[in-house]
Design a protein that fits this description.
alpha/beta; Rossmann fold; 2 domains; six-stranded parallel β-sheet; binds magnesium ion
């Protein structure tokens, strides 16, 4: 089977945003009385939309008897983060080369649960914007974010390709589930600086067809799908 399109997640796949954001947000949440461990935080929030994270936090605040969380708490934090700390962001090792390779042989898009403003800042800040052009899909582009398949289906439709001929590149169980639900091939990519030893197993549990440790491994695998 050959692929027609390679669809990329952004956070933790193209840029090392998960680790940076986790560090900042865990500090804020700790001050508010949420005593999440790194593992709790990652299992609970990584890969979700700001809205979905906000809903979980509001539920948790209620359960724990903490002060209520505002409806725009997460979106405000994300905007502040990527407005004021974009220079601290780095590319995931090999990811820019991977996207450049994919663009030479397949249609490409980025489909992210991130809000649009933050997504554009991350893509512009790390030189991905010219590669993707207007094939950039953010949380606001669909009613249901990942793990629903909608955003990946939207990207496939925009390219005029059958979902079955698409592969998604993802770092989170939430994203893998979205790709699988869209009827696409879902590959896990474990080169981000937030990746922990338990990540691989969780991506496989979520339905990943293959899991790769490096961008070079994915380039090699894509060469067989041209
Ligand atoms: Mg991600």
């Amino acid at each position: 089977m050959t692929f027609k399109a390679v669809l990329f997640d952004c956070d933790g796949v193209l840029v090392n945003s998960e680790s940076l954001y986790e560090k900042k947000l865990m500090g804020i949440l700790s001050d508010l009385g949420f005593g999440y461990s790194h593992e709790d935080y990652e299992k609970k929030f990584v890969g979700l939309t700001d809205q979905a994270c906000n809903n979980l936090l509001q539920e948790d605040a209620k359960k724990r008897g903490l002060a209520p969380i505002a409806d725009d708490f997460m979106i405000t934090n994300a905007q502040e983060m990527w407005t004021n700390h974009i220079e601290e962001l780095t590319q995931v090792e090999g990811a820019h080369k991977l996207v450049t390779f994919a663009k030479q042989h397949f249609k490409i898009a980025v489909a992210s649960n991130s809000g649009r403003d933050a997504l554009i800042k991350k893509l512009n800040g790390k030189d991905y914007a010219p590669l993707f052009g207007d094939m950039v899909y953010a949380a606001q582009d669909v009613v249901h974010g990942k793990p629903a398949p909608d955003i990946y289906l939207k990207a496939a439709k925009a390219h005029g390709v059958d979902p079955k001929s698409c592969v998604v590149i993802e770092d989170s169980p939430t994203g893998i589930k979205a790709g699988v639900a869209a009827g696409m091939t879902a590959w896990g990519f474990l080169a981000g600086d937030h990746i922990k030893p338990w990540h691989k197993e969780r991506l496989i549990e979520a339905g990943a067809h293959c899991v790769y440790d490096t961008a070079e491994d994915i380039i090699q695998a894509l060469q067989e799908k041209i």
